[in-house]
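User: quick one - fold this with P-hydroxybenzoic acid bound?
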Amino acid sequence: MRVQVCIIGGGPSGLLLSQLLHLQGIDTVVLEKYSRDHVLGRIRAGVLERGFAELMREAQCGERMDREGEIHNGFHIAHDGVLHHVDLHKYSHGNSVTVYGQTELTRDLYEARDRLGGKLVHNAADVSLHDLASDAPHVTYRDGGREVRIDCDYVVGADGFHGVSRKSIPKDVLREYEKVYPFGWLGVLSRTKPVSPELIYVKHDRGFALCSMRSQVLSRYYIQVPLTDKPDDWSDEAFWSELRRRMPLEVAARLITGPSIEKSIAPLRSFVAEPMSYGRLFLAGDAAHIVPPTGARGLNTAASDVYYLYHAMVARYRTGDGSGLNAYSQKALARVWKAQRFSWWMTMLLHRFPDRIEYEDRLQQTEMSYLFSSETALRLLAENYVGLPF
Ligand code: APR
Ligand code: PHB
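Assistant: Sure. C-alpha coordinates for the protein plus P-hydroxybenzoic acid:
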Protein backbone atom coordinates (compact mmCIF):
# COMPACT_ATOMS: atom_id res chain seq x y z
CA MET A 1 0.00 0.00 0.00
CA ARG A 2 1.11 3.57 -0.59
CA VAL A 3 -0.25 6.63 1.28
CA GLN A 4 0.98 10.16 1.78
CA VAL A 5 0.92 10.02 5.59
CA CYS A 6 1.09 6.84 7.68
CA ILE A 7 -0.23 7.47 11.19
CA ILE A 8 0.68 5.06 14.00
CA GLY A 9 -1.95 4.96 16.78
CA GLY A 10 -5.74 5.26 16.70
CA GLY A 11 -6.18 7.36 19.85
CA PRO A 12 -7.53 10.93 19.76
CA SER A 13 -4.31 12.40 18.25
CA GLY A 14 -4.02 9.96 15.35
CA LEU A 15 -7.72 9.92 14.51
CA LEU A 16 -8.13 13.70 14.63
CA LEU A 17 -5.07 14.31 12.45
CA SER A 18 -6.16 11.71 9.92
CA GLN A 19 -9.66 13.20 9.73
CA LEU A 20 -8.35 16.77 9.27
CA LEU A 21 -5.85 15.71 6.57
CA HIS A 22 -8.47 13.63 4.76
CA LEU A 23 -10.75 16.69 4.53
CA GLN A 24 -7.87 18.53 2.83
CA GLY A 25 -7.41 15.73 0.28
CA ILE A 26 -4.33 14.23 1.95
CA ASP A 27 -4.33 10.44 1.95
CA THR A 28 -3.63 8.72 5.29
CA VAL A 29 -3.82 5.34 6.97
CA VAL A 30 -4.11 4.82 10.73
CA LEU A 31 -2.49 1.70 12.21
CA GLU A 32 -3.88 0.81 15.65
CA LYS A 33 -2.46 -2.01 17.75
CA TYR A 34 -5.73 -2.93 19.47
CA SER A 35 -9.40 -3.46 18.59
CA ARG A 36 -11.86 -0.58 18.52
CA ASP A 37 -13.66 -1.94 21.60
CA HIS A 38 -10.39 -2.01 23.49
CA VAL A 39 -9.56 1.62 22.58
CA LEU A 40 -13.10 2.74 23.48
CA GLY A 41 -12.93 0.90 26.80
CA ARG A 42 -10.34 3.31 28.18
CA ILE A 43 -11.62 5.88 30.68
CA ARG A 44 -9.76 9.17 30.51
CA ALA A 45 -10.23 12.82 31.44
CA GLY A 46 -12.79 14.97 29.72
CA VAL A 47 -12.07 18.69 29.93
CA LEU A 48 -11.64 20.30 26.50
CA GLU A 49 -10.24 23.75 25.89
CA ARG A 50 -11.71 25.96 23.20
CA GLY A 51 -8.93 25.32 20.67
CA PHE A 52 -9.57 21.59 20.92
CA ALA A 53 -13.34 22.01 20.50
CA GLU A 54 -12.76 24.20 17.44
CA LEU A 55 -10.48 21.59 15.91
CA MET A 56 -13.18 18.94 16.44
CA ARG A 57 -15.67 21.17 14.59
CA GLU A 58 -13.20 21.78 11.78
CA ALA A 59 -12.81 18.01 11.53
CA GLN A 60 -16.63 17.75 11.21
CA CYS A 61 -16.76 15.79 14.46
CA GLY A 62 -18.16 18.43 16.80
CA GLU A 63 -21.89 17.89 16.52
CA ARG A 64 -22.45 15.56 19.49
CA MET A 65 -19.79 17.36 21.54
CA ASP A 66 -21.71 20.63 21.02
CA ARG A 67 -25.02 18.95 21.85
CA GLU A 68 -24.04 16.83 24.85
CA GLY A 69 -20.88 18.51 26.17
CA GLU A 70 -21.29 20.94 29.06
CA ILE A 71 -19.79 24.42 29.00
CA HIS A 72 -18.07 25.19 32.31
CA ASN A 73 -17.32 28.81 33.08
CA GLY A 74 -15.45 28.01 36.26
CA PHE A 75 -14.37 25.43 38.82
CA HIS A 76 -13.67 25.28 42.55
CA ILE A 77 -10.62 24.71 44.69
CA ALA A 78 -11.32 23.57 48.24
CA HIS A 79 -8.88 23.79 51.11
CA ASP A 80 -9.14 24.06 54.87
CA GLY A 81 -12.81 23.18 54.47
CA VAL A 82 -13.52 26.28 52.35
CA LEU A 83 -14.70 26.27 48.74
CA HIS A 84 -13.06 28.93 46.53
CA HIS A 85 -14.46 29.68 43.11
CA VAL A 86 -12.20 30.17 40.07
CA ASP A 87 -14.20 32.21 37.60
CA LEU A 88 -12.67 31.18 34.27
CA HIS A 89 -15.02 33.36 32.30
CA LYS A 90 -14.14 36.49 34.26
CA TYR A 91 -10.39 35.89 34.40
CA SER A 92 -9.80 34.64 30.86
CA HIS A 93 -11.63 37.20 28.75
CA GLY A 94 -14.92 35.30 28.54
CA ASN A 95 -13.37 31.90 27.87
CA SER A 96 -14.61 28.54 29.17
CA VAL A 97 -13.98 24.78 28.84
CA THR A 98 -16.22 21.97 27.57
CA VAL A 99 -16.71 18.88 29.72
CA TYR A 100 -17.07 15.94 27.32
CA GLY A 101 -15.56 12.50 27.96
CA GLN A 102 -12.55 11.43 25.94
CA THR A 103 -14.22 8.06 25.29
CA GLU A 104 -17.18 9.79 23.61
CA LEU A 105 -14.86 12.05 21.67
CA THR A 106 -12.87 9.06 20.40
CA ARG A 107 -16.13 7.35 19.40
CA ASP A 108 -17.12 10.46 17.39
CA LEU A 109 -13.74 10.46 15.66
CA TYR A 110 -14.05 6.77 14.72
CA GLU A 111 -17.54 7.40 13.34
CA ALA A 112 -16.28 10.33 11.29
CA ARG A 113 -13.43 8.22 9.85
CA ASP A 114 -15.96 5.51 8.93
CA ARG A 115 -18.29 8.06 7.29
CA LEU A 116 -15.53 9.30 5.00
CA GLY A 117 -14.26 5.79 4.31
CA GLY A 118 -10.94 6.52 6.06
CA LYS A 119 -8.31 3.76 6.05
CA LEU A 120 -7.98 2.36 9.54
CA VAL A 121 -6.31 -0.91 10.49
CA HIS A 122 -7.07 -2.42 13.91
CA ASN A 123 -5.01 -5.16 15.56
CA ALA A 124 -1.94 -4.08 13.57
CA ALA A 125 0.78 -6.17 15.26
CA ASP A 126 4.53 -5.51 15.37
CA VAL A 127 4.35 -2.10 13.72
CA SER A 128 7.85 -1.01 12.79
CA LEU A 129 9.21 2.12 11.18
CA HIS A 130 11.95 2.06 8.52
CA ASP A 131 14.24 4.49 6.68
CA LEU A 132 12.96 7.51 8.59
CA ALA A 133 16.04 9.56 7.75
CA SER A 134 15.54 8.97 4.00
CA ASP A 135 13.07 10.57 1.57
CA ALA A 136 11.24 7.27 1.24
CA PRO A 137 10.25 5.93 4.66
CA HIS A 138 8.07 2.86 5.07
CA VAL A 139 6.18 1.11 7.83
CA THR A 140 5.52 -2.59 8.26
CA TYR A 141 3.07 -4.50 10.44
CA ARG A 142 1.79 -8.03 10.80
CA ASP A 143 -1.75 -8.96 9.89
CA GLY A 144 -2.09 -12.55 11.13
CA GLY A 145 0.80 -14.40 9.50
CA ARG A 146 1.22 -11.85 6.70
CA GLU A 147 3.62 -8.87 6.73
CA VAL A 148 2.16 -5.71 5.21
CA ARG A 149 4.32 -2.85 3.93
CA ILE A 150 3.16 0.76 3.67
CA ASP A 151 5.24 3.24 1.68
CA CYS A 152 4.64 6.88 2.51
CA ASP A 153 5.99 10.44 2.42
CA TYR A 154 5.72 10.95 6.19
CA VAL A 155 5.15 8.91 9.35
CA VAL A 156 3.27 10.35 12.32
CA GLY A 157 3.89 8.67 15.69
CA ALA A 158 0.63 9.15 17.62
CA ASP A 159 0.92 5.85 19.46
CA GLY A 160 0.90 7.06 23.04
CA PHE A 161 3.50 6.80 25.77
CA HIS A 162 4.16 3.07 25.31
CA GLY A 163 4.21 3.20 21.50
CA VAL A 164 6.95 2.19 19.12
CA SER A 165 7.46 5.52 17.29
CA ARG A 166 9.45 7.43 19.89
CA LYS A 167 11.66 4.37 20.35
CA SER A 168 12.47 4.49 16.62
CA ILE A 169 14.41 7.73 17.08
CA PRO A 170 18.12 6.97 17.62
CA LYS A 171 19.16 7.18 21.27
CA ASP A 172 21.87 9.75 20.58
CA VAL A 173 19.29 12.11 19.04
CA LEU A 174 16.53 11.75 21.62
CA ARG A 175 16.56 13.49 24.98
CA GLU A 176 13.97 12.54 27.60
CA TYR A 177 12.92 14.55 30.66
CA GLU A 178 10.88 12.86 33.36
CA LYS A 179 9.43 13.45 36.80
CA VAL A 180 7.58 10.66 38.59
CA TYR A 181 5.35 11.70 41.50
CA PRO A 182 5.29 9.55 44.64
CA PHE A 183 1.51 8.85 44.52
CA GLY A 184 -1.34 7.94 42.20
CA TRP A 185 -5.00 8.80 41.68
CA LEU A 186 -7.63 6.24 42.50
CA GLY A 187 -10.57 7.01 40.20
CA VAL A 188 -14.18 5.86 40.48
CA LEU A 189 -16.91 6.26 37.88
CA SER A 190 -20.48 6.01 39.19
CA ARG A 191 -23.94 6.46 37.78
CA THR A 192 -24.81 9.23 40.21
CA LYS A 193 -25.59 12.92 39.98
CA PRO A 194 -22.36 14.95 40.35
CA VAL A 195 -21.96 16.57 43.75
CA SER A 196 -21.41 19.97 42.14
CA PRO A 197 -22.29 21.47 38.74
CA GLU A 198 -18.64 22.56 38.41
CA LEU A 199 -15.46 20.56 39.13
CA ILE A 200 -13.98 20.71 42.64
CA TYR A 201 -10.22 20.24 43.18
CA VAL A 202 -9.55 19.51 46.86
CA LYS A 203 -6.32 20.12 48.76
CA HIS A 204 -6.48 18.29 52.10
CA ASP A 205 -4.11 17.07 54.80
CA ARG A 206 -5.17 13.50 53.99
CA GLY A 207 -4.36 14.05 50.32
CA PHE A 208 -5.80 15.50 47.12
CA ALA A 209 -9.31 14.74 45.82
CA LEU A 210 -11.22 15.71 42.68
CA CYS A 211 -14.95 15.79 41.97
CA SER A 212 -15.55 15.63 38.23
CA MET A 213 -18.22 14.31 35.89
CA ARG A 214 -19.03 12.97 32.47
CA SER A 215 -22.66 14.17 32.47
CA GLN A 216 -25.42 15.08 34.92
CA VAL A 217 -25.98 11.37 35.61
CA LEU A 218 -22.38 10.13 35.50
CA SER A 219 -19.80 11.23 38.08
CA ARG A 220 -16.04 10.79 38.15
CA TYR A 221 -14.23 11.11 41.50
CA TYR A 222 -10.57 10.72 42.40
CA ILE A 223 -8.51 10.50 45.58
CA GLN A 224 -4.74 10.62 45.95
CA VAL A 225 -3.40 7.24 47.14
CA PRO A 226 0.07 5.75 47.74
CA LEU A 227 1.59 4.06 44.69
CA THR A 228 1.60 0.77 46.56
CA ASP A 229 -2.23 0.69 46.76
CA LYS A 230 -4.24 -1.52 44.39
CA PRO A 231 -7.83 -0.81 43.29
CA ASP A 232 -8.94 -4.02 45.05
CA ASP A 233 -7.64 -2.59 48.34
CA TRP A 234 -10.46 -0.06 48.13
CA SER A 235 -14.07 -1.18 48.57
CA ASP A 236 -16.67 1.28 47.30
CA GLU A 237 -17.56 2.13 50.92
CA ALA A 238 -13.93 2.85 51.81
CA PHE A 239 -13.56 5.07 48.73
CA TRP A 240 -16.71 7.14 49.43
CA SER A 241 -15.84 7.51 53.08
CA GLU A 242 -12.29 8.73 52.31
CA LEU A 243 -13.60 11.12 49.64
CA ARG A 244 -16.13 12.54 52.10
CA ARG A 245 -13.43 13.12 54.73
CA ARG A 246 -11.42 15.24 52.28
CA MET A 247 -14.37 17.37 51.11
CA PRO A 248 -15.64 20.53 52.80
CA LEU A 249 -18.55 19.57 55.11
CA GLU A 250 -21.22 21.30 53.02
CA VAL A 251 -20.08 19.37 49.94
CA ALA A 252 -19.78 16.03 51.76
CA ALA A 253 -23.34 16.47 53.01
CA ARG A 254 -24.74 16.48 49.48
CA LEU A 255 -22.57 13.72 48.01
CA ILE A 256 -24.68 11.01 46.37
CA THR A 257 -22.89 7.67 46.26
CA GLY A 258 -23.56 4.49 44.30
CA PRO A 259 -21.81 1.37 43.06
CA SER A 260 -18.60 2.04 41.15
CA ILE A 261 -18.79 1.05 37.48
CA GLU A 262 -15.05 1.51 37.02
CA LYS A 263 -12.22 1.75 39.54
CA SER A 264 -8.57 2.18 38.63
CA ILE A 265 -5.32 3.74 39.83
CA ALA A 266 -3.26 6.00 37.58
CA PRO A 267 0.31 6.95 38.54
CA LEU A 268 1.25 10.61 38.05
CA ARG A 269 4.11 11.39 35.72
CA SER A 270 5.53 14.33 33.77
CA PHE A 271 7.50 13.41 30.64
CA VAL A 272 8.83 15.21 27.54
CA ALA A 273 10.83 13.79 24.64
CA GLU A 274 12.89 16.15 22.49
CA PRO A 275 12.97 16.62 19.55
CA MET A 276 9.45 15.75 18.39
CA SER A 277 10.62 14.96 14.88
CA TYR A 278 13.34 12.89 13.27
CA GLY A 279 13.77 12.82 9.48
CA ARG A 280 10.33 11.97 8.09
CA LEU A 281 8.86 11.03 11.51
CA PHE A 282 6.75 13.45 13.57
CA LEU A 283 5.57 12.62 17.11
CA ALA A 284 2.22 13.87 18.41
CA GLY A 285 0.39 13.61 21.74
CA ASP A 286 1.27 11.14 24.47
CA ALA A 287 3.96 9.59 22.25
CA ALA A 288 6.07 12.67 22.98
CA HIS A 289 4.81 14.01 26.32
CA ILE A 290 2.80 13.12 29.40
CA VAL A 291 1.41 15.35 32.12
CA PRO A 292 -0.14 14.48 35.47
CA PRO A 293 -3.93 14.87 35.10
CA THR A 294 -4.17 17.70 37.64
CA GLY A 295 -4.44 20.55 35.15
CA ALA A 296 -6.48 18.57 32.56
CA ARG A 297 -3.81 19.32 29.93
CA GLY A 298 -3.10 15.85 28.43
CA LEU A 299 -5.63 15.74 25.64
CA ASN A 300 -5.42 19.48 25.08
CA THR A 301 -1.67 19.38 24.55
CA ALA A 302 -2.15 16.55 22.06
CA ALA A 303 -4.56 18.86 20.23
CA SER A 304 -2.00 21.62 19.79
CA ASP A 305 0.48 19.13 18.29
CA VAL A 306 -2.22 18.01 15.87
CA TYR A 307 -3.02 21.63 15.01
CA TYR A 308 0.62 22.50 14.19
CA LEU A 309 1.22 19.27 12.28
CA TYR A 310 -2.02 19.57 10.31
CA HIS A 311 -1.23 23.11 9.14
CA ALA A 312 2.38 22.23 8.35
CA MET A 313 1.33 19.18 6.27
CA VAL A 314 -1.33 21.14 4.38
CA ALA A 315 1.24 23.85 3.51
CA ARG A 316 3.70 21.18 2.38
CA TYR A 317 1.21 19.45 0.08
CA ARG A 318 -0.50 22.62 -1.24
CA THR A 319 2.52 24.78 -2.00
CA GLY A 320 5.53 22.56 -1.40
CA ASP A 321 6.48 24.74 1.59
CA GLY A 322 8.19 22.44 4.11
CA SER A 323 9.16 25.17 6.57
CA GLY A 324 6.22 24.36 8.90
CA LEU A 325 7.34 20.74 9.11
CA ASN A 326 10.93 21.80 9.76
CA ALA A 327 9.78 24.08 12.57
CA TYR A 328 7.20 21.62 13.98
CA SER A 329 9.24 20.20 16.83
CA GLN A 330 10.38 23.57 18.12
CA LYS A 331 6.93 25.12 17.85
CA ALA A 332 5.10 22.20 19.46
CA LEU A 333 7.65 21.91 22.29
CA ALA A 334 7.32 25.58 23.21
CA ARG A 335 3.65 25.01 24.03
CA VAL A 336 4.24 21.52 25.47
CA TRP A 337 6.62 22.93 28.09
CA LYS A 338 4.08 25.57 29.11
CA ALA A 339 1.51 22.83 29.66
CA GLN A 340 4.16 20.90 31.63
CA ARG A 341 4.80 23.93 33.80
CA PHE A 342 1.12 24.43 34.53
CA SER A 343 0.41 20.75 35.28
CA TRP A 344 3.45 20.57 37.55
CA TRP A 345 2.39 23.77 39.34
CA MET A 346 -1.16 22.52 39.98
CA THR A 347 0.15 19.12 41.08
CA MET A 348 2.62 20.70 43.52
CA LEU A 349 -0.05 23.07 44.85
CA LEU A 350 -2.75 20.51 45.60
CA HIS A 351 -1.12 17.23 46.64
CA ARG A 352 0.28 15.95 49.89
CA PHE A 353 3.91 14.97 49.33
CA PRO A 354 4.95 12.13 51.65
CA ASP A 355 8.57 13.32 51.95
CA ARG A 356 7.93 17.05 52.22
CA ILE A 357 9.63 19.19 54.84
CA GLU A 358 7.75 21.72 56.98
CA TYR A 359 9.20 24.60 54.99
CA GLU A 360 7.56 23.21 51.83
CA ASP A 361 4.23 22.83 53.64
CA ARG A 362 4.30 26.52 54.52
CA LEU A 363 5.19 27.47 50.94
CA GLN A 364 2.28 25.40 49.65
CA GLN A 365 -0.11 27.14 52.07
CA THR A 366 1.29 30.52 51.05
CA GLU A 367 0.88 29.73 47.35
CA MET A 368 -2.76 28.88 48.01
CA SER A 369 -3.55 31.98 50.04
CA TYR A 370 -1.72 34.13 47.50
CA LEU A 371 -3.80 32.62 44.68
CA PHE A 372 -7.07 33.67 46.29
CA SER A 373 -5.84 37.11 47.31
CA SER A 374 -4.59 38.21 43.91
CA GLU A 375 -6.57 38.76 40.73
CA THR A 376 -3.29 38.52 38.80
CA ALA A 377 -2.67 35.03 40.19
CA LEU A 378 -6.24 33.97 39.33
CA ARG A 379 -5.77 35.32 35.81
CA LEU A 380 -2.64 33.21 35.39
CA LEU A 381 -4.50 30.12 36.56
CA ALA A 382 -7.52 30.80 34.33
CA GLU A 383 -5.43 31.62 31.24
CA ASN A 384 -3.60 28.29 31.53
CA TYR A 385 -6.66 26.20 32.44
CA VAL A 386 -8.69 27.34 29.43
CA GLY A 387 -5.63 26.75 27.25
CA LEU A 388 -2.91 29.03 25.92
CA PRO A 389 -3.36 30.03 22.28
CA PHE A 390 -2.02 27.58 19.67
N1 APR B 1 1.30 0.27 17.12
C1 APR B 1 0.09 0.82 16.83
N2 APR B 1 -0.67 1.48 17.73
C2 APR B 1 -0.17 1.59 18.97
C3 APR B 1 1.10 1.07 19.34
C4 APR B 1 1.84 0.38 18.35
N3 APR B 1 3.04 -0.15 18.63
N4 APR B 1 1.32 1.37 20.64
C5 APR B 1 0.25 2.03 21.07
N5 APR B 1 -0.67 2.18 20.07
C6 APR B 1 -1.99 2.84 20.13
C7 APR B 1 -2.67 2.68 21.46
O1 APR B 1 -3.37 1.44 21.51
C8 APR B 1 -3.61 3.87 21.48
O2 APR B 1 -4.89 3.58 20.97
O3 APR B 1 -1.82 4.24 19.99
C9 APR B 1 -2.93 4.90 20.60
C10 APR B 1 -2.42 6.09 21.39
O4 APR B 1 -3.51 6.73 21.97
P1 APR B 1 -3.41 7.56 23.35
O5 APR B 1 -2.58 6.80 24.30
O6 APR B 1 -4.81 7.89 23.73
O7 APR B 1 -2.59 8.87 22.96
P2 APR B 1 -3.05 10.15 22.13
O8 APR B 1 -3.88 9.79 20.96
O9 APR B 1 -1.82 10.96 21.94
O10 APR B 1 -4.08 10.86 23.11
C11 APR B 1 -3.79 11.94 23.92
O11 APR B 1 -4.31 12.81 26.10
O12 APR B 1 -5.68 12.88 27.98
C12 APR B 1 -4.51 12.42 27.46
O13 APR B 1 -3.38 10.38 27.88
C13 APR B 1 -4.57 10.95 27.46
O14 APR B 1 -4.97 9.48 25.66
C14 APR B 1 -4.88 10.72 26.00
C15 APR B 1 -3.96 11.69 25.38
C1 PHB C 1 -11.77 13.82 34.75
O1 PHB C 1 -12.96 14.17 34.66
O2 PHB C 1 -11.45 12.64 34.61
C2 PHB C 1 -10.75 14.85 35.06
C3 PHB C 1 -11.12 16.19 35.06
C4 PHB C 1 -10.19 17.16 35.36
C5 PHB C 1 -8.89 16.80 35.63
C6 PHB C 1 -8.50 15.46 35.59
C7 PHB C 1 -9.44 14.49 35.32
O3 PHB C 1 -7.98 17.76 35.93
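One thing worth noting: Residues 8-14, 31-34, 39, 44-45, 102, 124, 127, 158-160, 162-164, 285-286, 298-299, 302 surround adenosine-5-diphosphoribose (ligand 1) (CB under 6 Å).
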